[in-house]
Amino acid sequence: MKTQTALILGLIFALIIALFAVINVDPVTVNYAFGSAQWPLILVILFSVLMGGLAIFMFSLFRVMALKRQNKELIRLNEQLKKEMHELKLEQREAVTPAANSTRLAPDGD
Description:
The protein is mostly helical and 110 residues long. It has two helices and two strands, in the order αββα. Helix 1 (2-23) packs antiparallel against helix 2 (41-96). The N and C termini lie far apart (75 Å). The model has no long low-confidence stretch (mean pLDDT 87).
């Protein structure tokens, strides 16, 4: 459901940008650090949206990689703690359960 909602919102956003870009087809002057050029406003808008999407993708990619690394570390730590807990439970059972070859003492008076 979350994926469908994100997809629908993304399509609506893309439609709004496309409509806005089609309405604005007049040529504009784009100033660069080394010069300027005339470009249709539709291309400037689409290029800006593309660069923004690429920037968001790169930031999210780094975040996903960091979360995967953290997840692997936590899984390793969880397995280690499970092993330690199992060993402690075995030690506790051995301490509570008497050994099979131990002698049993009869109560006084028998």
